[in-house]
Amino acid sequence: MSLLDVRDLTIRTSDGRALVSDLTFSVDRGERLGLIGESGSGKSLTTLATLGLLPDGMTTTGSVELDGTQIVGASEKSLVEVRGRAAAIVFQEPLTALDPLMRVGRQLAEPLRRRRGLKGDALRKAVAEALEQVRLPEPGRIARAFPHEISGGQRQRVALAMALACEPDLLIADEPTTALDVTVQSEMLVLLDTLVGERGMAVLFVSHDLAVVSRVTDRVLVMKDGRAVEDGTVRDLVRAPRQPYTEALVDSARRLESALDLEGPR
Ligand SMILES: Nc1ncnc2c1ncn2[C@@H]1O[C@H](COP(=O)(O)OP(=O)(O)OP(=O)(O)O)[C@@H](O)[C@H]1O
């Protein structure tokens, strides 16, 4: 059985409009899948549905099985058990995940305490280690800072550290680098690739940008207007896109890659 098995997923607004239609895909343990498509194609709603986090009023039909738990129609109690452990999410804007009024160290301590039952010195040490793991310099200073006192790139690393603290089987990353400038974006992608590789974690990586997705995943599902239009390896999609829409994504990724190449070796 796959770690994540999505079958005929349809998401509708309260007035019955379908935002995602008949979506089927799966992610095996240790596998990395990219979800790609233009803005509004339904990528974020799909990832939210995976963790039972859709906004109130939306209805879901079909099946989303995460590590054997049916998410569609699940009680909040079973969702709490599966979130974090089976899958954790990193959003585009890390401030979504971080409490602006709480020091970074305390926020990071929470999942470590909950998941690993750590407290006192052991918990403090684990917080410092988690910050070091995402290559944050001066972990002591970062732990004492409030989210607004550190840079956007540092906040995104903290959000990644929080997601990894739960030791999930699947990391969902929803445009995790889009809000960052190009150099920081590149560093973040390398870090994510390394940390996920070390842990053998599965990844669902969401982006509108094929060049970014191809840095982390091997297989891609292309979405348009809430539907899957094409899937395959990045290599096949780049060599022989079957849909004009995919071809346009490939062209724009090529333009971006050559722009990055002009900046010298990464
Ligand atoms: N709470 C909501 N109520 C009504 N419609 C919504 C809501 N959230 C999203 N939508 C609509 O659902 C569609 C899919 O949105 P979604 O955020 O999943 O797209 P996306 O591919 O992730 O885009 P982006 O890259 O801009 O985040 C869009 O047309 C969007 O306007």
Automatic annotation (TrEMBL):
Keywords: ATP-binding, Cell membrane, Membrane, Nucleotide-binding, Transport
Database matches in CDD domains: ABC_NikE_OppD_transporters
SMART domains associated with the record: AAA
Any one cellular-component term (Gene Ontology): plasma membrane
Top-level taxon: Bacteria
Compartments it resides in: Cell membrane
A Pfam family per the record: ABC_tran
Topology versus the membrane: Peripheral membrane protein
GO molecular function: ATP binding; ATP hydrolysis activity
Ranges for domain ABC transporter: 4-250
Main localization (coarse): membrane
Family, per entry: Belongs to the ABC transporter superfamily.
Protein name as catalogued: ABC transporter ATP-binding protein
Originating species: Streptomyces antnestii
